[in-house]
Structure formats: structure tokens, C-alpha cells
Design a protein that fits this description.
This protein is 46% helix and 15% strand. It has 253 residues and is an alpha/beta fold. It has an 8-stranded mixed β-sheet, covered by helices on one side. Strand 4, helix 3 (68-74) and strand 5 form a beta-alpha-beta unit. The protein is elongated and about 70 Å long. The N and C termini lie far apart (54 Å).
């Protein structure tokens, strides 16, 4: 299988590495930034060009690993001669690609990916396609790099994306707020890291609802009031504390 990767960021880099590891041939890397395209292409042993260059028409499949906002820009210049073209976005319809090719789809990696990763974690892949032949091609490629491949239409992927925002992005933001609080109050944030890891490990083995702890689920109003008093100089955190406490109490009422 010959693939052209369009993009050179975190998703393009990690997926490219996995493809090379599983004998999928990356024939070209395209990127808005020529230098970035060159760097990734050298790692993947492929040709490269910027978005104004010629697309390699020998490829079997074209993978758009770019930001959601940049997807609409891609429609202006791509000519893939009717070959399958995919995007990697969770919250964008596959149909944004239908004017490029009749054979199109989605290859959504449900994972937080960074170029700097030394070890690539398991990556569930959500796939969708405009027709059966394209779906089988996508499934073949996805199955080479992931043990978890599921068909997910636009509506399902949007729901998964919302859940992922809560489970990943919002959770990480709360870690950031905790770190800000610790730094300002002269506390070592590293003391919380074993707790963070233990909480994450628990939900790999049990439903999050069964392992919830803390003053809110105990309805410990005295501790909650003490914590709110400590947050009097942090109005944003205090507001979040109240809303999340209410949410926990309502969920376990």
C-alpha cells in the first residue's frame, strides 16, 4: 500500500511512524511548511513537497492529517484522480471530502498524540467511508497499526469526540489549575502525581462511577465549605469547584 500524508504535525508524525513500522509505504509528505515536510519525509524515507507542489498520483490512498480548520483549505488544491482520500478529524463530517474524490472517508485516531512520544500508546481507530471498497481499504490499513478498529459514522464520532473532551482535555485542564494553585500556595505539585496515576489506573479496571471518592460524594459539607474558603482568592477555581461538586452530588443522588 502506498500512502501520501498531507500534514506534518503530531498526528501525521505518529501515524506515519506506525505505518512505516507495519510496512506501509509513505511515498510523499506534503505540508504547508516545506521545512516541516522535509523533516518528516526524511524520517519516513519518502519524498516531500509543500502544498503548492505536485501530488504523487501513484499512491493508493491519501491521508489528510491536518487541523479541522485547515480541512476546508485542502479542497482548493488537491487532485487525487479519484483515489481514496481520508481525514483524521473526529468532529468533521466525511462529506467535506466528496468534492475531491468519490472515494473518501475518515481515519480518526482516538488518542492524544505528540511527536515527542518515545513509546506510542494503543490507538483505537474510528473509520468511515463513502463506499464499501473504500471502507475495506481503510479497514485494512487501520488493522495493521491498531488492535481496536471500529466503524463510526459522523454522528457517532461527534459523540465520541465530546466524551473525549471531557475525559482528556477537561481533565488535563483541572490538572493545570491544580498545578497553578500548588505553585501559588508553595505546595509541590509532584505530590499529586501518584494520585493522578492511581485514579487513571482505576478506571481501566472499573466504571468511573464505582470508584468516585471525595467530599462531594460523601456529602461532607464541612470539608466542602473549608475548601471553598481556601479558594476565595481564586474565583474561577471556586466557581468550578461549586459546579463540579453540584454535578457529583446530582449524579449520585
Amino acid at each position: 500500500m502506498k500512502v501520501v500524508i498531507i500534514g506534518s504535525g503530531n498526528v501525521a508524525t505518529i501515524l506515519g511512524r506506525l505505518m512505516i513500522q507495519h510496512n506501509i509505504n509513505i511515498v510523499q509528505v506534503m505540508s504547508r511548511n516545506m521545512e516541516h515536510a522535509k523533516i518528516l519525509a526524511e524520517e519516513l524515507n519518502s519524498n516531500f513537497t509543500d502544498l503548492n507542489g505536485l501530488v504523487d498520483i501513484t499512491a493508493d490512498l491519501y491521508l489528510l492529517a491536518i487541523s479541522d480548520a485547515a480541512l476546508t483549505e485542502s479542497l482548493l488544491y488537491l487532485n487525487v484522480n479519484g483515489k481514496p482520500i481520508l481525514h483524521t478529524a473526529g468532529a468533521v463530517s466525511k462529506d467535506v471530502l466528496k468534492q475531491i474524490s468519490p472515494n473518501y472517508g475518515v481515519f480518526y485516531p482516538l488518542q492524544s498524540l505528540r511527536k515527542e512520544m518515545k513509546i506510542i500508546p494503543p490507538i483505537p481507530i474510528m473509520i468511515d467511508a463513502s463506499n464499501v471498497a473504500t471502507m475495506e481499504l481503510i479497514r485494512e490499513m487501520a488493522s495493521k497499526i491498531s488492535d481496536s478498529v471500529q466503524i463510526a459514522n459522523d454522528e457517532t464520532r461527534q459523540k465520541i469526540h465530546v466524551a473525549a473532551v471531557f475525559a482528556n482535555n477537561f481533565t488535563n485542564h483541572l490538572y493545570s489549575l491544580a498545578e497553578v494553585f500548588c505553585n501559588k500556595e508553595g505546595i509541590d505539585f509532584n505530590l499529586l502525581k501518584p494520585l493522578i496515576l492511581e485514579t487513571a489506573n482505576k478506571v481501566t479496571e472499573a466504571s468511573p462511577g464505582t470508584v468516585q471518592t471525595g467530599p462531594a460524594i460523601r456529602k461532607d459539607l464541612i470539608t466542602i465549605e473549608k475548601n471553598l474558603n481556601l479558594l476565595s482568592e481564586y474565583p474561577e477555581m471556586k466557581s468550578l469547584y461549586i459546579k463540579i461538586t453540584d454535578s457529583i452530588m446530582n449524579l449520585y443522588r
